[in-house]
């Protein structure tokens, strides 16, 4: 399921960032392949074997995939620049590439198209390409993993799945084929899904995809058990996984309880305790997009399909992956998270999918 979810979210972020259909779900794409293969060459934390960590092929393959991605994105930027120039740089849509080109045109030429060169300068292209790659990676990663775990948890807890389906029926009607048109025509309907959002938040509490580091400074200290710790010269890491399992903050932390995130929940969650996208001025710029597309994916799939994790069947068929190590369960969970640049479901989340209408 992780591969299917990743290809879906890459297609979504391709439209948002590049206004381009990458066809990741249906065909092979040069950018998508280079992007995904480059991730596999990222060194994995916790490995100390020098033959693995200092693989002489790593810098070569990293360079090759970077070159492939840069060339692909450079061609997209050039083509978009040329088409906008012909249109006298009329304000385009809200795609990231259009916003970048609009700003470039405003800074370089003001209102005069004649002052622009026939192609953007190389420094601008490099900055845009680097940012596009960041958007492509960060824009798909959290959502793809989170969707896998939403399916996993709702498959384990049919009572919560039934409540999500009921909410979708109430907002969009029982004819699931009408939901896409309703979302497109009235996207504000997605704001009327409090339980769906609660499921997303609870999933990210149990399975946070990433965390972040902040540089310490002289004016920042941490107090714990009455002792003050200076942060100067240190990196401060908020361990989301440990924080979200604290029973004093989230009662019954190992239980799937979406209702804890509903408005007027009986036990109030402390401010800043839930932080899968981090907090402050450098929080995740794409968190609203991630939540929005997650809601849409859930509305489009959960009433038509049943998903059940099939890790035991997978292991009987293919054996246990060396990548996952020798541990069978973590917190009683067979599809625990493993590190692949970010936290990913073990074995890619093997899953059995059936039409909901076929279930009795």
TrEMBL record:
<dbReference type="GO" id="GO:0004497">
    <property type="term" value="F:monooxygenase activity"/>
</dbReference>
<dbReference type="GO" id="GO:0016705">
    <property type="term" value="F:oxidoreductase activity, acting on paired donors, with incorporation or reduction of molecular oxygen"/>
</dbReference>
<dbReference type="InterPro" id="IPR001128">
    <property type="entry name" value="Cyt_P450"/>
</dbReference>
<dbReference type="GO" id="GO:0020037">
    <property type="term" value="F:heme binding"/>
</dbReference>
<protein>
    <recommendedName>
        <fullName>Cytochrome P450</fullName>
    </recommendedName>
</protein>
<dbReference type="Pfam" id="PF00067">
    <property type="entry name" value="p450"/>
</dbReference>
<keyword id="KW-0560">Oxidoreductase</keyword>
<dbReference type="InterPro" id="IPR036396">
    <property type="entry name" value="Cyt_P450_sf"/>
</dbReference>
<keyword id="KW-0349">Heme</keyword>
<dbReference type="InterPro" id="IPR050196">
    <property type="entry name" value="Cytochrome_P450_Monoox"/>
</dbReference>
<comment type="similarity">
    <text>Belongs to the cytochrome P450 family.</text>
</comment>
<dbReference type="GO" id="GO:0005506">
    <property type="term" value="F:iron ion binding"/>
</dbReference>
<feature type="binding site" description="axial binding residue">
    <location>
        <position position="284"/>
    </location>
    <ligand>
        <name>heme</name>
    </ligand>
</feature>
<keyword id="KW-0479">Metal-binding</keyword>
<keyword id="KW-0408">Iron</keyword>
<keyword id="KW-0503">Monooxygenase</keyword>
<dbReference type="InterPro" id="IPR002401">
    <property type="entry name" value="Cyt_P450_E_grp-I"/>
</dbReference>
